[in-house]
Amino acid sequence: MAATTIQLSKDMKKTLEGMKLHPRETYEEVLERLIEDLRELNQQTKKEIEQAIREIKAGKFKTHDQLKADLGF
């Protein structure tokens, strides 16, 4: 493992401290969880976009005007 020093504002440090699951969790562990969550979110988002594109191509959508009419606007 390589050791390095980073500079954080007091607010950022306080935010990271608040994200710890337990007092002894390191900032590296907090950052690893955040990065993993982002990767998963990105993969999930990509899948949802691909599904939406398939639905649009299949004609499974409503225009704004259709939706307004359905909702009584």
Low-confidence stretches: none
Radius of gyration, in angstroms, nearest whole number: 22 Å
- General form: elongated
**Proportion of residues in β-strands:** under 5%
Q: Helix segment count?
A: 3
Query: N-to-C SSE series?
Result: HHH
Average pLDDT for all residues: 93
The tally of beta strands, per DSSP, is 0
Distance between the termini: 60 Å
Structural class: mainly alpha
Q: Describe the main β-sheet briefly.
A: none
Fraction in helix: 55-70%
Characterise this structure.
The chain has a domain at 27-71. Helix content is 67%, strand content 0%. It has 3 helices and no strands. The protein has helices at residues 10-19, 27-57, 64-71. The longest helix is centred in the middle third of the chain and has 31 residues, at 27-57.
